[in-house]
Design goal:
The protein is of the alpha+beta class. It has 2 domains: about 70 residues; about 150 residues, Beta-Lactamase, CATH 3.30.450. Helices cover about 55% and strands about 20% of the residues. It has 6 helices and 8 strands. The strands form 2 sheets. It has a 6-stranded antiparallel β-sheet, with helices on both faces. Strands 5-6 form a two-stranded antiparallel sheet.
């Protein structure tokens, strides 16, 4: 039994006894004293119960706050899974040596990325000496309309200029067409990713999909593109 409730019960006993005596009127001279005792005891019990209720409410608040705090803490397993996903994304991209055909290498890596993320079309541009970017690799590209671009030109050129990836769901008509076994269609999303090596944009990749590309998958794509670009620049 709660300690406070036990005290209330103990104080309740003289009230009951006093009430019985008062009703039976066996000791008339003590009526006023008994009424006072009953009143004071009743007030004490009421105060104790109010205090008891306040204590319980505070305990409930503390429990609720702890529950909310625990729910807001990041899940350890979720953090581990995210770290594993990033590690697997890096390991997916092959290393190369000076004997590797670089164009074949890029096409192979783009194919790996497309299958891992479930993408429908990818193009990769490599920076040239005249500060333009030329088409260097592709996945599922059937029409090569844009063979190269300059800094600031179009969506790709803007991404290079700003040194920032672009994720677009409102794609301009005719910008890109995906051809699959189901026919031709406009992509639902386009992810334009500059490839950095020491703050220099050495390449750019465009990823088109008939569905939306999640935030998590966009993070994985950037990791893989960065490793691929690093390999291309550092192995001649």
């Amino acid at each position: 039994m709660n300690k406070i409730n036990l005290i209330s019960l103990i104080l309740l006993l003289p009230i009951i006894g006093s009430a019985i005596i008062l009703v039976s009127n066996k000791i008339p001279n003590y009526n006023i004293a008994l009424v006072s005792v009953i009143t004071i005891s009743a007030i004490i019990i009421v105060v104790i119960n109010i205090f008891n209720k306040t204590v319980i409410e505070k305990k409930v608040e503390v429990i609720v706050e702890k529950k909310v705090y625990i729910e807001k803490q990041p899940d350890v397993n979720e953090q581990t899974n995210e770290a594993d996903d990033l590690k697997n994304a890096v390991n997916l991209i092959d290393n190369i040596d000076d004997k590797t055909n670089r164009e074949e290498y890029v096409n192979t890596q783009l194919s790996k990325i497309a299958k891992k993320i479930d993408l429908d079309q990818i193009v990769f541009y490599l920076k040239q000496d005249n500060n333009t970017y030329k088409l260097f690799g592709k996945y599922a590209l059937t029409m090569e309309n844009n063979l190269e671009f300059s800094v600031g030109e179009g969506l790709s050129g803007q991404a290079v200029k700003d040194k920032k990836a672009l994720y677009i769901t409102d794609i301009p008509d005719g910008y890109i067409t995906i051809i699959s076994g189901l026919g031709k269609g406009n992509p639902k999303s386009l992810f334009v990713v500059p490839a950095f090596v020491d703050e220099d944009v050495v390449g750019l990749a465009e990823f088109a999909s008939l569905s939306e590309i999640t935030t998590k998958n966009r993070e994985l794509i950037e990791i893989m593109v960065e490793k691929m670009a690093f390999n291309l620049v550092n192995v001649k």
